[in-house]
Specification:
This protein has 203 residues and is mostly helical. 33% of the residues lie in helices and 2% in strands. It is built from six helices and two strands. A two-stranded antiparallel ribbon has the order 1-2. The longest helix has 19 residues. The protein is flat. The protein starts with 35 loop residues before the first helix and ends with a helix.
Length: 203
C-alpha cells in the first residue's frame, strides 16, 4: 500500500538508538574513545623527546614575529607570523645571516605597513637577544668565539619549553567604564558630522 499524498519517503535511523540498546548487539554502532588517555600520554612523551633532542635550543623551534591576520573579521587579533622582515632585523641591528644561526625566522616577502607593527617586532627581537645564551660549538678553550656566553653562565641552563618562546601579547579590547566629562557632554557627534558633510558639499 502506497503513501497518501506526495510526501517524503520516511528514512528515519531508529537503529542508532532503539535497536542497539538491548540484547547482545548493545551499542554496536556507538563510536568509542577508550584510548583518549593513552594518546594524551603519548603526545606528552613525544613533546618531551623532541625537547630533549633540541636541548639547549627552545622546544618551540624558531622565534616568530607577531602579526595581524588579514581581513576585517580577524585583523584585531594577534598571531605568530612566518618570519621577521629585513627592516625589523635592520632596526634591531641583527645581521640576516647571523639571525638564521641563532634561531630567528626570516621572511623576505613580508612588508611592514606601519611603524607600530615594526616597533613591536623590534622590541620582540631585542628581548630575545637580551635573554639569548650562545654555546660554544666545541668543548675546547680555543673554540670560544666573540659573542659566545661565558662557560660560567652556561651551567644548569633551563630549556625554554613555551609554545611561542616569547608569548604573544593579548590586546586589551575592553575599555573600562568611566564618568563622562563636561567637554564630552557639550560636544555633539551629530553636529560635527553634519558640519563636515556640509563643508564637503559646499566648500
Amino acid at each position: 500500500m502506497g503513501h497518501g499524498g506526495n510526501n517524503v519517503i520516511p528514512n528515519v535511523h531508529f537503529r542508532k538508538v532503539n535497536g542497539c540498546q538491548a540484547g547482545r548487539k548493545n551499542r554496536v554502532f556507538m563510536r568509542t574513545w577508550l584510548d583518549q588517555a593513552g594518546r594524551k600520554k603519548r603526545r606528552a612523551n613525544n613533546r618531551k623527546a623532541k625537547a630533549a633532542k633540541l636541548f639547549p635550543r627552545p622546544a618551540a623551534g624558531l622565534l616568530r614575529p607577531v602579526v595581524h591576520p588579514p581581513t576585517q573579521r580577524y585583523n584585531m587579533k594577534l598571531r605568530l607570523g612566518k618570519g621577521f622582515t629585513l627592516d625589523e632585523l635592520k632596526e634591531a641591528k641583527i645581521p640576516r645571516k647571523f639571525a638564521k644561526t641563532i634561531g630567528i625566522s626570516i621572511d623576505h616577502r613580508r612588508r611592514n605597513r606601519c611603524t607600530e607593527s615594526l616597533q613591536v617586532n623590534v622590541e620582540r627581537l631585542k628581548l630575545y637577544m637580551s635573554k639569548l645564551l650562545l654555546f660554544p660549538k666545541k668543548s675546547g678553550t680555543k673554540s670560544v668565539k666573540k659573542g659566545d656566553t661565558p662557560r660560567s653562565e652556561l651551567k644548569n641552563v633551563a630549556q625554554n619549553t613555551l609554545k611561542e618562546i616569547i608569548p604573544v601579547p593579548k590586546p586589551q579590547l575592553h575599555i573600562k567604564a568611566r564618568a563622562i566629562t563636561a567637554e564630552e557632554k557639550e560636544k555633539s557627534a551629530y553636529k560635527a558630522l553634519k558640519k563636515a558633510r556640509t563643508n564637503k558639499h559646499y566648500l
